[in-house]
Every structure is written in C-alpha cells, then in structure tokens.
C-alpha cells in the first residue's frame, strides 16, 4: 500500500504509546528521537510537539501520512506498523 505525504491516515495511538513505553521514553523523549531521526535522514530537524504526540496517542485522529512517518522514524519502525487497521 502506497501513501502520499499529505494523505490522511488513522494512526493507532495505542501502538505508538506501547512502542514509546517499551523504550522507557517519555513523550518528550520521543519528540527528541523524532528530531534526531529526521535530521539523520534529511539533514533537517523536523518533529512534533509533546501535545501532538499526546493527541495522537489518546485520540487516534486522522493525520497526514508524513506525520506518521516522522513518528516511525523516531521509533525506528515501519510507518505501516503505526496505522490503525479497520
């Protein structure tokens, strides 16, 4: 399945939370990991806010696929693993 960066997808907030906690990270630590990973990949630091991470974990509202890719980069996993399966 291929997605464009702007495509709206539904993240699985529970999976994001579980993977973050498995690493022993706070939401703030995930924000830093996202910034570090995106800088390694593209040379540009891009991240989310702690509030955005909380919102994704708690509400699983639709977001741009690029947002899920940033989270996956920080968690060092495949973005598809973070998508909600309906």
Shape: globular
Unreliable segments (pLDDT under 50, ≥5 consecutive)?
A: none
Number of strands: 2
Main beta sheet strand tally, sense and closure: 2 strands, antiparallel
* Beta-strand content bin: under 5%
Q: Share of helix among residues? A: 40-55%
Number of helices: 4
Q: What distance separates the N and C termini?
A: 15 Å
Radius of gyration: 12 Å
Average pLDDT level? 94
Structural class: mainly alpha
Order of helices and strands: EHHHEH
Spatial strand sequence of the major β-sheet: 1-2
Report what the structure shows.
There is one protein chain. The protein is mainly alpha-helical and 86 residues long. Helix content is 55%, strand content 5%. It has 4 helices and 2 strands. A two-stranded antiparallel ribbon has the order 1-2. Helix 1 (13-22) packs across helix 3 and helix 2 (27-42) crosses helix 4 (65-75). The two termini are 15 Å apart.
